[in-house]
Amino acid sequence: MPLPRFLMGPEFLIELIYSVVVMFSCLVIYFKTREIYNLSSYKSIKYFRMTFLFFAISYFLRFFSRVIMLALALSGPVFLPIGLSSLTTLLLVYTGLMTTFYLFYSISMKKLGKILPETTDYLHVLAVFISSTVMFLNLAIIYVGISLLLLLIMLFLGYSEYVSSERKKSLSPFSIVYFLLILFLMLNIFDILTPGFFMGVRTMIYIASLFLFLLILYKVLKILRVESNDRKKKQT
Amino acid sequence: MIEKRNRLKIIYDILNMIRNHNNSIKPTPLLRYSNLSSQSFTSYLGELMEKGFIAEGRDKKNRKLLILTEKGFDYLQKYKIITKFVDDFNL
Question: Alpha-carbon distance A154 to A175, whole Å?
């Protein structure tokens, strides 16, 4: 049986490679940091790990949505179970919001730890409510607005920490990296909600976000490897 | 951040103190060295025992001793990496 046309095109291959690399990076970050979280029980590390788990799920769902779109565009009408596309998009918006929420929690705990509720269950309820609203009202702008608002608060927290620090140590480059990662995820999801939104700059966004995910993966592995090398040296 | 940072450091100090005393110390001197209030010390000790970082032992006179478990040693070894991770990723 011949393969459907869309599976042989370059677009599918690009989507596949992009999604697999991002998902792989995120899952490696998630699993490699399990031990230091188990030892420290440090809440920010927990939310950092959850952020990358949800990044992986979001990019998986996004890949699935893109494949459906490519199939419809390149192979003409295809048989899809009723509601599959809408359900995938709903889940994508939900996981995208959860990614943003967890990242917000992760980098805000040190500043807002006493204000933020201990449990994050309400975030799931909130994300389900917002994603359902986005889907039923067909208003992608709600998702974008909430994500942008959280991004601005995160940037403000990063900047205020820098200003208030006594040593005036340089602003962490990861504040900017986190901002860009969420921005790219937001654009990627917006592209699904509003097809063709950033068709012209899609490749640029793919390359930039791949670079950032690989940068974080490299940094995580480097920190872990330095430590394990130190231990080996002590043992010898 | 400061509170949480201190928590990681306090745990490190408690575990390190036990290690530096040939891995067995009585609770009272440990409380003294830890520079914590009695209430905080009890809370930290309870948490560390619950997580399996510290175990109870007995000396020849059947007095209570605190000893590090393998997990406790593991924390001491990985303390630097945890703080570096938290610092570098601005967590």
Answer: 8
